[in-house]
Amino acid sequence: MSLIRTQTAPISKWWITEGLKLIEAHPDLFSKDKMRQMRTMLIVGSNRLDTIKGWLLASQIIQNDKRRYYLSDFGYELKNNDSNFEKSSTWWAFHLSLCFSSRGEPYSTLFKILNPSNEWYASKKILKRMQERIEQSDNYIEDDFQGVKSMFQDNKPLADLELIEFRPKDLEIYIRLGSPTISDEILLYALTLARFHVAKNRTSITFTELLTCGLNHFICLSPDELRKRLRNLHRSARWQSQLRFDEVKGLDTVEFLSEDLNSHKMLLNLLQNHKDSWL
Q1: Which domains, and CATH codes, for the chain?
Q2: d(C-alpha 180, C-alpha 225), whole Å
């Protein structure tokens, strides 16, 4: 897993929307020849240009083939359904894409460390655990952790999703998972992403595999809460013909009964049908 390379900073809605416009017009946006021009157009220095590139690549909104940068299919769907990145569903998709990204560290590890049990963790303790788990320079991890934390504070894009909570205590900042409302659209997109990354060539994924990949942490649910939500999906009139949750002692399994239950279609379901949940 690779680091985001946030350069200690979050990304803003404006940087994303303007950056995507520029990338479509200038596929060589981040080349050395275009760097001065892009810094002027995005009103940033060289470090912030690296910040924008890091977040866009880590969230899988853009891709590159060593010669050019371009919007991914995921990026096109976000842009086509919410061009100004204003809807909470867009940022839920952004969040989940980062959680399953191959270059999303230490974002995904932050969520895996935090326990869905209202337990507070000191920032320094979290950083130490990150440095033990991620095979990268400790200084780089610390810089990226600062950028990730900032995404959930003040007026930053992810702050109002209630994913992360902060509390100052004894000159230290404590962090815990929040209590966001998890719609069926969010859960289904998370499930299909987990299947794509863990069990791509199978029509099922075990409950243990869901927990191991961190899915319940990513959506702030305890294992028992996740199991209850899977039961409800299995029994719902809307999804019972497409998904089954088989509960066999020691081997609970989610069965995907329809080809329509894939990450692309569940992304569109999230972007188009999720009820806005901004605070």
Answers
A1: 13-87 (1.10.10.10), 107-177 (1.10.10), 184-273 (1.10.10.10)
A2: 13
Q: Using an 8 Å Cβ cutoff, are 30 and 68 in contact?
A: no
Dihedral through CA 253, CA 256, CA 257, CA 260, nearest 10?
A: 170
Q: Are strands 121-122 and 69-71 parallel, antiparallel or unpaired?
A: unpaired
Query: Which contiguous run of DSSP H or E holds residue 245?
Result: strand 243-246
Whole-angstrom distance, CA of residue 142 vs CA of residue 130: 9
Tokens representing 197? 């990354």
DSSP for 99-119, written as a single string: HT-TT-BTHHHHHHHS-TTT-
Alpha helices, H only, the chain? 13-25, 35-42, 46-58, 73-81, 88-99, 107-113, 123-133, 138-150, 184-198, 207-212, 215-218, 223-235, 263-273
CA-based R_g, the chain, Å: 19
Question: What span, in angstroms and rounded, lies between the C-alpha atoms of 185 and 239?
Answer: 11
Q: What is the pLDDT of residues 146-202, one digit of tens each?
A: 999 999 998 888 999 999 999 999 899 999 999 999 999 999 999 999 999 999 999
When pLDDT is cut at 50, 70 and 90, the band that residue 278 belongs to is low
Q: Please say whether the beta carbons of 266 and 233 come within 8 A.
A: no
Which run of H or E residues covers position 64?
A: strand 62-64
- Spatial contact of 75 and 60, defined as CB atoms under 8 Å apart: yes
